[in-house]
Amino acid sequence: MVARSSPSVQIAPNGRILALSSAWFADGARRRREARQAGRCVECGLALASHRTPYCSRRCRWKFHGHYFWDSARSYTMLRDRYTCRICGRRRRARELDVDHIVEIARGGAALEYSNLQTVCRECHRSKTVAFLRSRSTDPGDAPE
Ligand SMILES: [Zn+2]
Ligand SMILES: [Zn+2]
User: How many angstroms is it from 9 CA to the middle of ligand 2?
Assistant: First the structure.
């Protein structure tokens, strides 16, 4: 689950990323699109041979994915889970699935670790989020900020 309200990325002293905004991830997609249109590598700015990819090389692709880990983590997690919701076990199309943090980031779960990511369908994700928010509202000591 990505915190939608917070525009910031918070990094804990141990280097763990605590909160990531959807804007942060969308930014990666926007930069790739602009780079393709401009014909320049999104990572190093070198002229591209084709407009089909925003990377000049495999190396730049990996470097950029490092910055925008979520895109690749998402695809990896869905593939690993065979596009099947890990809560209800139903197989869905990629666009009907979300990638969820098993232990919510707000509860101290790792934001960017495959072991803490699972594929879930929209409905299960919604119920899990609702249950999580409800459990938090009964525990005000755990509220963010
Ligand atoms: Zn490059
Ligand atoms: Zn489900």
Answer: 28
